[in-house]
Amino acid sequence: MTEIALIADIHGNIPALTAVDEDIKRRGISTVYCLGDMCGRGPNGSAAIDYCRDNCDVILMGNWDEHVATGRRPDYLKEAGAERQAFLRTLPLYHKMWLSGRRIHLFHGRPLFRDIVWEDSPAEKKLSLFSLIEDEYPVDIVGYADIHRQFKTDFKDDYRILFNTGSVGNSFCTPTACYAILRGELGSREKAPISIEFVSVPYDNAQAVANMRKELDWFDFPDEYTAEVTLGRWQPNL
């Protein structure tokens, strides 16, 4: 059985990423997928990008990655640099795979689609994510990121599952680092056991704030960032 750690929305929070990395290694998981947003919002996006390039088997583009890739956010682009910007431009928007006989689609959310699908969005809006990407096979499970909140919805009429990984670096519901684990037979079209686990890891929030304050010559929202990483509450101005 393969275990896949799904990380997303790191947003340059290196203490949170370090805590998650240590937890993944403690569990003996060697396969890691990043569902996007390595940079933006936080101060150390370059280090987060470098970690993912070195450690992730799959890396998808998130909306903040797109902002930096296109130069839409020159403040974060300056921190990341031109070589990483070029790398971000190469990232795919989604990943398809078989796991224990289930067809799975993984993506960040935006920029693949421009709306936001929250955990309390109407069922029809959630179901629309299953037909978002063209596929010759029916889609059984969709995993995404973007909203910084972990949840799982089971559509019991047809056994489909929608889940969100949560955020490593900027959770909007807890001041911890969140990620998900998929378990199953990777690449197999034969039905076999499969599971989805949500993980929440404590980390050094004070160090994350200290890292941000080192970058105050270009970082514009120190108070909002502090609130996000210490309280786990969304700050819309950030």
Task: Determine the mean pLDDT.
Answer: 96
Please give the largest β-sheet: 5 strands, mixed
Note the run of SSEs as H and E: EHEHEHHHEEHEEEEEHH
Which stretches are poorly predicted, pLDDT < 50 over at least 5 residues? none
The tally of helices reads 8
Overall geometric form: globular
Structural class: alpha/beta
| Beta-strand content bin | 15-25%
Computed Rg: 17 Å
Q: Percent helix among the residues?
A: 25-40%
Distance between the termini: 40 Å
How many strands? Answer: 10
Strand order of the largest sheet: 3-2-1-9-10
Brief descriptors of the model:
single chain; alpha/beta; five-stranded mixed β-sheet; globular
Give a verbal description of the structure:
This protein is an alpha/beta fold and 238 residues long. Helices cover 29% and strands 22% of the residues. The protein is built from 8 helices and 10 strands. It has a 5-stranded mixed β-sheet. Helix 3 crosses helix 5 (82-89) and helix 7 packs antiparallel against helix 8. The radius of gyration is 17 Å and the shape is globular. The termini are far apart. The mean pLDDT is 96.
Question: What's the quick description here?
Answer:
With 238 residues, this protein is an alpha/beta fold. Helix content is 29%, strand content 22%.
Could you outline the blueprint of secondary structure elements for this entry?
Elements: E1 2-7, H1 14-26, E2 31-34, H2 45-55, E3 58-59, H3 63-69, H4 74-80, H5 82-89, E4 94-99, E5 102-107, H6 123-127, E6 141-144, E7 151-155, E8 160-164, E9 177-184, E10 195-201, H7 205-213, H8 222-231
Parallel strand pairs: 1-2, 2-3, 5-6, 6-8
Antiparallel strand pairs: 1-9, 4-5, 7-8, 9-10
